[in-house]
Amino acid sequence: MASAAWAVLQVLLLLPTRSWSPVGAGNPPDCDAPLASALPRSSFSSSSELSSSHGPGFSRLNRRDGAGGWTPLVSNKYQWLQIDLGERMEVTAVATQGGYGSSDWVTSYLLMFSDGGRNWKQYRREESIWGFPGNTNADSVVHYRLQPPFEARFLRFLPLAWNPRGRIGMRIEVYGCAYKSEVVYFDGQSALLYKLDKKHLKPVRDVISLKFKAIQSNGILLHREGQHGNHITLELIKGKLVFFLNSGNAKLPTTIAPVTLTLGSLLDDQHWHSVLIELLDTQVNFTVDKHTHHFQAKGESSYLDLNFEISFGGVPTPGRARAFTRKSFHGCLENLYYNGVDVAELAKKHKPQILMMGNVSFSCPQPQTVPVTFLSSRSYLALPGNSGEDKVSVTFQFRTWNRAGHLLFGELQRGSGSFVLFLKDGKLKLSLFQLGQSPKNVTAGAGLNDGHWHSVSLSAKWSHMNVVVDDDTAVQPLVAVLIDSGDTYYFGGCLDNSSGSGCKSPVGGFQGCLRLITIGDKAVDPISVQQGALGRFRDLQIDSCGITDRCLPSYCEHGGACSQSWDTFSCDCLGTGYTGETCHSSLYEQSCEAHKHRGNPSGLYYIDADGSGPLGPFLVYCNMTDGTPLSWWVGRTNETHTYWGGSLPDAQKCTCGLEGNCIDSQYYCNCDAGRNEWASDTIVLSQKEHLPVTQIVMMDAGHPHSEATYTLGPLLCHGDKSFWNSASFNTETSYLHFPAFHGELTADVCFFFKTTVSSGVFMENLGITDFIRIELRAPTEVTFSFDVGNGPCEVTVQSPTPFNDNRWHHVRAERNVKGASLQVDQLPQKRQPAPADGHVRLQLNSQLFIGGTASRQRGFLGCIRSLQLNGVALDLEERATVTPGVEPGCAGHCSTYGHLCRNGGRCREKRRGVACDCAFSAYDGPFCSNEISAYFQTGSSMTYHFQEHYTLSENSTSLVSSLHRDVTLTREMITLSFRTTQTPSLLLYVSSFYEEYLSVILANNGSLQIRYKLDRHQNPDAFAFDFKNMADGQLHQVKINREDAVVVVEVNQSAKKQVILSSGTEFNAVKSLILGKVLEAAGADPDTRRAAASGFTGCLSAVRFGRAAPLKAALRPSGPLPGHRARPRGPVTRCAAGAASGSPARELAPRLAGGAGGSGPADEGEPLVNADRTDSAVIGGVIAVVIFILLCVTAIAIRIYQQRKLRKENESKVSKKEEC
């Protein structure tokens, strides 16, 4: 069991660590002695010298002999100054000066180092490869401490820039101390076996540390195994270091691969790399150079249950070799320690604990290969060919990240043709051009832009041209002509077209490294090229491969996949739920409140509670209506909780237990009572830090015939405290301060602001030289500025309309290693790329100022809310309560969010946000956007009485008071939507106490007709609108707007028609509005009477007459509004979902208990089967339903009687008033 549990590992963290020194190989803490000053002149060398008195021997710091420093013959970027320290030393600092008493100094430079004077490696500052800062005059000294230090014998200073009014001039010093180490060399067929002392107790902690320099890209560095197949192995695979762990569980199939952890990249560069492995109990730490994997095994560990021997460099015995078919290590190991024991020293002294297999030596040979780096797409290397030979033969190795690039161009002799070898889409392509022939193409290899070395061999003789990439061979037939090698081969790129070289390529120049170039049978010496004795070149770095892995460490967040080219990297965020150049910004809102104030209806949404933080997005149901907040959170642990809804954690009670009304007082939950009948507990869990529910377990109570079932509802979310968390800044000198913002590699800031002033600083945080600031620079400009050491950078968004309009505006700024972006509201996002290979860390150390600056100037006047930094919300209100000049909260949200209230809804201010008042809208819902619809069956109708709703107000001029029976109407707005196939149909009928009326009908042919009778002594105005047959079963919208005698009719928001009334301009004493069948239409025209008798069958929605909403009054979910008299007759029900509108609002409100959702004891919600169900619950349910139906019938009868009595009383009152 222990080994099985151990096989599952959980990766906890990947982060850089400080450099460390191996146990026993520590260097003295005082390691800053000058190393160059005591060296002889012969230890200094250079690319060239201006004169003998400007030679490299005069380049020691503060010396004035000779010309007072080194100056090369030509000041260009190909010059260098080199120091030979005599042996490998630890280098901790460097210092530079200009030429004494001159105008010659270097303003920036590169620092390179090497063990043997070949294959140089560039020292990196931070994650950057930028140069070191140099001098600003000739005599001041600029020191730079190296963090971390390095070990090397040779150092090179490469000037990048110098005083434009002078030349390159340098005096230098190097600081450090002696470095002692023991080295072991393995030739790829050898190994060391270290036998531990069995008499000693096995340690509780194993520590293995070493450095390695690999000559080949594959090989086993160490291996240790146990008796049951469990083992640990450290292996170099394609330049990456892989740590294998196998629990050795015999029950597992042998095909199951061991757990692997991979660190590092390009580790086959023939430079030293450090490794540290720590095994303690169930914890394993694996470090390569500056990067560490910490991981934890589940259950008990078996990694210390291993044999008393460990092998280095390979697996020495044949018995163990059959388990590992991979090759042994070819290279050097240094400072090889196991639990503080220097294994290399034991081997060198031939101690009996060490068994050496094969050719093991104790010195590390220096590489003689000279690589060449093509730094840019303009780089090229022109080398002479074997002119006159009857064949073409070129070989070389290359490595790159680029998918495309020119590798080689050559012309054949006598003008017979040319060829181009290039990369395209990661494949090697050869194009051959011969006179009078169409171009011939051949392809070999794939995925060659993986950063590894690949071998290329190109040969042509007589009738065939062969190209071989690694083990992939392609052959191109040629026209049978004599092949002669050309004069010049162009590697990596071509000269400018004006040079007349004839070199051409279908792709851009090559960026990467080349080595082992041969032309004919002769190897090319790049050092001769560097010295000017062979060929020509441009923009090369000779004797160094400058490839770097820009995806290590990966700056792609949230699981984004990193890919790279020579110059940059990119992140694939597909499927992560995040976006941006580093997959930093969430695609989803942080809360239901944010969704709500984008105008979204209730429904299922993904939310990302911490924005750009580590928690991923999750699906929730957002209830946009006001009510009791229910908020469930993503669980972070697998802890067991025994409390239930309404109870505090650890109370072990249900709601009935807290309220004291459980069915059995001995228990705190109904389901614990153990009754023979079914009992239930309906619970709501709202402790955010424990949610969501991921598993429900119901244990067997041990009672025969007992069973249980459950239903788990969806995760519900409501509200967001941080969304409305705000502060008002009342003076220019007021501000809020918080601890320094830590966003070294990625920083995002988002907030809302509103103001009436023209400028002010929203936030500012300073470092020693770095800073970050967001400000309103002008009424139409928001600016994001920062400095990470490359100089100030600004991103500005300009708006066509002012930002100081006292409305809320949303700002989102992000800065990462790729660049910076700024977006305000929905304006186009502005971006600013980061400089190539510049500083990347934002280092801030002062307080974060909100609403002001450290200088107390240019402060912000207005409101800031919902401020979040890297997904963490700052509590502005809490800090504002104790800060003079700043008040918590900010009023006035309707100016921004009032447009969300649609269809006549009114925006109402709340302390935190807004609410839509739909009282005078025909719609309902949080934004007055949910249509109130009704399906009228044949013979059904609904009557809405105006005179019982509206009351007279002498001082009121509103439409509400104008609808009194003693007041006339000179205008009205009518809207309705319908869907029907019946003709004729009465859509709407409005009557008055003076026998005036309005009818909207569909004629027999389905055309829309309107009748206005505004004078009982005249015939009605009848208008027919031949828009189309509107009884087609489709949804149609009708809008009627009357102003005096002018009536404008609009259908389906497009077709309009205007008519003029002749019967009058005043609609007197409006009485009622009837939808559906009209029983009495006395005084109406024949067409209206026929339509009234037929009524309406179909769906009506969004019916509105002025401010009256008849359907809403009758069918509103919370019941009729007080004072409304909307009386249905016959079956009038809500329309089916989607029948009333083309795009209905998503009302997906689920039930917490007894409804939809995941359920079941085994994730299915089926009963736990211990016995058959009893019939008592079924019988009891049937009896309850019967009783409920009888009560409903009685209540309906009483209601009908009351309505009839009230109608008769009203009619008698009306008749008495008319008689008067």
Largest sheet: 9 strands, antiparallel
Which runs of at least 5 residues are low in confidence (pLDDT < 50)? Answer: 1-27, 250-257, 627-636, 948-964, 1119-1123, 1142-1220
Q: Roughly what percent helix? A: under 10%
**CATH architecture descriptor of the largest domain:** Sandwich
Radius of gyration: 42 Å
Q: Helix/strand-derived class?
A: mainly beta
CATH topology of the largest domain: Jelly Rolls
- Count the beta strands: 80
Beta percentage is 35-45%
Shape: elongated
Q: Output the number of helix runs.
A: 12
First-last Cα distance: 100 Å
Regarding CATH, which class of the largest domain?
Answer: Mainly Beta
- Count of individual domains: 7
Q: Summarize model confidence as the mean pLDDT.
A: 81
Write the SSE topology.
Elements lengths: L1 H5 L2 E8 L16 E2 L9 E3 L34 E17 L8 E9 L6 E2 L9 E2 L8 E21 L8 E8 L4 E5 L3 E5 L9 E10 L4 E7 L5 E7 L2 E7 L12 E5 L9 E8 L2 E6 L2 E7 L11 E4 L5 H4 L8 E9 L2 E2 H6 L5 E4 L2 E2 L10 E3 L5 E5 L7 E8 L5 E7 L5 E8 L2 E8 L5 E5 L9 E8 L2 E6 L2 E6 L10 E4 L20 E8 L2 E2 L2 H5 L5 E3 L1 E3 L18 E4 L4 E4 L5 E2 L5 E2 L5 H5 L6 E5 L10 E5 L32 H5 L56 E2 L8 E4 L6 E3 L8 E8 L5 E7 L4 E8 L2 E7 L5 E6 L10 E8 L2 E6 L5 E4 L14 E3 L11 E8 L2 E2 L2 H5 L5 E3 L5 H4 L8 E5 L2 E5 L5 E2 L5 E2 L1 E4 L4 E5 L13 H4 L5 E2 L1 E10 L4 E8 L4 E6 L5 E6 ...
Parallel strand pairs: 45-46
Antiparallel strand pairs: 1-19, 2-9, 3-4, 4-8, 4-9, 5-6, 5-7, 5-8, 10-21, 10-24, 11-20, 11-23, 12-17, 12-21, 13-14, 13-20, 14-15, 15-16, 17-18, 18-19, 21-22, 25-36, 25-39, 26-35, 26-38, 27-32, 27-36, 28-29, 28-35, 29-30, 30-31, 32-33, 33-34, 36-37, 40-41, 42-43, 44-45, 47-58, 47-60, 48-57, ...
